[in-house]
Amino acid sequence: MAAGSDLVYFCDWLPPDFGAVGQYALIRARGFAAQGRRVTLYGLSSAADSVEEERVAPGALRVVRLRAATYDKTSLIQRAWWTARTNIRLVTRAWSDLRSCDEILFTGSPPLMLHVLAPLNTVLRRRLVYRITDFFPEAMIAALPRAPAWLRPLQWLTVFWRRRIDRFEVLGEDQRARLVGQGIRPERIVLVRDPSPVAIGPDTRPLALPESLRGKKVLLYSGNFGVAHEYETFVDAYEKHHRAGSGNVVLWLNAAGKGADEVERRLSSRDLPCLRTQPMPLGQVASLLVTPDAHLITLRAAFVGIVVPSKVFGCIESGRDILYVGPAESDVHLLCKSKITAGRYTRVDIGDVAGLQRALEDLGGAGS
Q: Cys-Cys link to 306, which of 4, 100, 135, 365 (CB 3.0-4.6 A)?
């Protein structure tokens, strides 16, 4: 792309690496190119550095991947070092484009890129757009039993730089409310939801069910299952469903993350059925999403307005039932109740084990 870029776009893990932010960023970058823009998308790869050029008429797209190692997310020191190093590497690699572009768009992943780009932009003076895929350090604070004192100055500095952003893109109305509460002017905030990461249509064929799921009602949790996702209510209700109920529903955990590991451990220790698989390649996701009888989505109350589980868009697009365990204030509930046929969506409050057990019984008996 000899003429350079008018839009520089930053995210974290790009396909084929697993990561919802990168999947959506690549889709969006192609969309910008199709509008006639010259886009360079910078992200990460677990394999190798690479540069790929795509001609997306009437514009063009260059995808630049920087090789990055994974790290122990439970270690705060390792996480901070990885974040700082990765953000600086991405910006350094993009420097020539940053000097000549018209607009810089960055996401909430990698975390705290705001603290690199916002100060830098006092010199560059480009149009700076922040797509709030996640809130940091709020997400870190929400994940801790008690926030350490040093996180408070970081929060203040984060809000200081946010107030100097030209435009925000939020994924949900709950995120908009959080920004307005921090003093961001509403006219600088636009709602730009993610689409489903894959196209699902009448010709999309389901996957063949693994042997252990055949003859059962399959409840699928797919994607990332991390600290933002509640599991205690589900595990207790699922046990009651199998000990005292019909036991017709079986969980398929096609997920990565600390929460997925903990769910698998707890179900295994209680001798409860669960199929655990790793997230599938993007090319198989459409078929995966139309395979189960229902999808499971969970969210902890502390994370409302901080994260919007991206899986909700694909789950809605699949046409399957959705079982959501979490607060009504989240945009998960707003989207599901407005887009899903009555009777095919159920929300259960966190801690309502009896209510979730009834929902599982209803799912297990549906169509039988």
A: 135
130: left (phi over 0), alpha (psi -120 to 50) or beta: beta
Query: Taking 50 as the threshold, does the pLDDT of residue 1 lie above it?
Result: no
The candidate with the shortest Cα–Cα distance to 325, out of 346, 302, 305, is 346
How far is residue 88's CA from residue 309's CA, in Å, rounded to a whole number?
A: 27
Quote the CA–CA distance of 155 and 137 in Å, as a whole number: 6
Q: Using DSSP bridges, classify how beta strands 50-54 and 60-67 pair: parallel, antiparallel or unpaired.
A: antiparallel
The single-letter DSSP state of residue 38 is E
| Percent over 90 (pLDDT), the chain | 76
CATH of domain 7-191: 3.40.50.2000
Cα 328 to Cα 326: distance, rounded to the nearest angstrom: 7
Distance CA 32, CA 11 (A): 15
Residues 6+ apart with CB under 8 A from 273: 212, 242, 250, 251, 267
CATH architecture of 211-365: 3-Layer(aba) Sandwich (3.40)
Residue 332's Cβ-count burial label (10 Å; 0-12, 13-18, 19+) is buried
**What whole-number distance in Å separates Cα of residue 329 and Cα of residue 110?**
26
pLDDT tens digit string along 75-89?
778 888 999 999 999
> Which of 2, 18, 116 shows the shortest CA–CA distance to 70?
18
Buried b / exposed e over 144-179, threshold 16 CB at 10 Å, is eeebeeeeeebbeebeebbeebeebbbbbbbbbebb
pLDDT category of residue 101 using cuts at 50, 70 and 90: very high
What global pTM score does this model have?
0.84
Sign (positive/negative) of CA torsion 238, 239, 244, 250?
A: positive
pLDDT of residue 3: 54
Domain boundaries, the chain: 7-191, 211-365
C-alpha 184/C-alpha 295 separation (Å) is 35
In this chain, the answer to whether the domains covering 7-191 and 211-365 adopt an identical fold is yes
The two tokens of residue 190 are 């636009």
Cα 37-39-41 angle, rounded to 5 deg: 155
